[in-house]
Amino acid sequence: MRLKISNSKKKIIIRVFKILLVVVGVIIIIFNDTFGKLEGFVEFLALYFILIFTMIAYWIFKQIKSIIRLKNEKAKTELLHLKSQVNPHFFFNTLNNLYGLMEKDSKERNMVLKLSDMMRYSIYEGEKDWVTLEDEIEYLNNYIELQDIRYHKKSDIQFTHTVENSQAKIMPLLFIILLENAFKHGLENLDKNAYIHVDLTESKNEVTFVIENNFELQQSPSKVGIGLKNLNRRLELVYLKRHLLSFNVDANTYRVKLFLKLR
In this structure, what are the phi and psi dihedrals at residue 237, rounded to the nearest 5 degrees? Predict the structure, then answer.
């Protein structure tokens, strides 16, 4: 998608064209007696003006075309967004109905409630540019509790967080990819002694997220999946030169550390 030229750049380009025209006009006025006698000078000026006006017309045409394209793409994006809102509402209504049919204080009912909260956060908060660190921590807690209900195996899952400013702004859904991978490649494939230790700290506008889990030796987590590629891309776009993502594999232990420098 082509980007629209900013107003400041437009002003600079137009100003340059005006200066060129004025300069040519001054040259014609001052040196008319001398240059007017030169053979082919008039033809040269005519070609020069034709070239200038052609360039201006081409630039205007490109800008109009770019604006029309951007408007069309914006309209398509808004339409897709409106269509995507239908399924979430249907999904939430269905979950609410299931929640009402289940016995009170049952694990299944609690599971539906956690799932509904997670989906709502993912859809509505996930599309925002920034969320509070407090909301992101609550989302991670819901995910961990949901997985704890889902897996019927003894495991050691710990999530500690020390935050000075719970209202600090952060890009949403950054940590969930790393947490999902820990469950998918670790706890899900282990029959016993599975553990996932998560630690999140925030101090002086800096956030450090560390997650460690064990895994089966036969399943090496060396390959980079789509989720991690997307995470890296998002970090590059929003936290350029203000983040550090590192991975460490030792025997059957996988450790990830993400450092962020907030604005």
Answer: -75, -40
**Angstrom distance (rounded) from CA 259 to CA 242:** 8
> How much is the pTM?
0.64
Q: 97 with 90: CB under 8 angstroms?
A: no
Give every CB contact of residue 262 below 8 A, 6+ residues apart in sequence.
168, 169, 170, 205, 206, 207, 242
Interacting residues of 175 by C-beta distance below 8 A, sequence separation 6+ = 136, 140, 200, 209, 211, 258
Lowest mean pLDDT among 94-108, 125-139, 180-194: 94-108
> Mean pLDDT throughout 231-257?
91
| Confidence at residue 115, expressed as pLDDT on a 0 to 100 scale | 84
Mean pLDDT of the chain: 79
DSSP 103: P
C-alpha–C-alpha distance, residues 168 and 132, integer Å: 5
Which of 115, 111, 135, 116 minimizes the C-alpha distance to 125?
A: 135
Listing from the earlier edge strand, what are the strands of the sheet with 155-163? Answer: 155-163, 194-203, 206-214, 253-261, 243-250
Predicted local confidence at residue 230, as pLDDT: 85
Phi, psi torsion values for 194, nearest 5 degrees: -80, 140
pLDDT value of position 112: 84
